[in-house]
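Hey L., structure's done. Input below.
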Amino acid sequence: MRANQPTTRSRQRGMSFIGLVLWGFIIVALAIVGSKAVPIVIENMNIKKAAIKAARQGTTVQEVRAIYARAQAIDDMTSVNDKDLEVTKDQEGKVVVSYSYERDIPLYGPVYLVFRFNDSVK
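Output:
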């Protein structure tokens, strides 16, 4: 054997072109799904924030719904209307606002990513 003999292919390390393409495809697919999911999650955070504000400031069902409707108009939330809120009181007399809704993202053909939100705030 010679000392300056080239290394064999089995000793080479790294990613093949096919592996690179597959990883690229996975990253692009996750970026597309993420770009469609982030607005839905942000809207849910705004809905929860508005429901908490309405539960803390309102004392009657009408007041709670009016406070939520103002926040809904400002933040442009379309998934939950003030009529969709379930307003009750717990044993301590605190106002409890509950809501539940579902949003879906069409991915490809009959494939959907479904978000189900169900929350209750005081």
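The mean pLDDT is 88. DSSP finds two helices and three strands in the chain.

-- N.
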